[in-house]
């Protein structure tokens, strides 16, 4: 019986320690950007603003677009707790039609990698773009 109580106490202690481990944490203003209708041949840029609401500095290791048509710029230095940062994704609007693209962000933040989304429709005439 003492053994069972000892192991149960050990499991509870381990669980409580695991829950209090400090980490970096993304808090996105919005993880999706809808461009609506955009003109063909005119690259467009979405900005994704985040705050590090964790207790450790947040370091982005990489941020990559889902295709060669999406370039990504991200903070290369650490984002301290309470600070904000921006990731910019530029989509080259070459092909006509609807598009759905993603940006995969890999960092030391809790929860592993994060996915950002951009979508819209490329139209031929600039006059119909918003």
TrEMBL record:
Tagged with keyword Cell membrane: no
Claim: Metal-binding is one of the keywords in the record: no
Keywords: Signal
Domain of life: Bacteria
Gene3D superfamilies named among the record's database cross-references: Immunoglobulins (2.60.40.10)
Signal peptide: 1-23
PANTHER family documented for this protein: LIPOPROTEIN-RELATED, SIGNAL PEPTIDE PROTEIN
Protein name: DUF1573 domain-containing protein
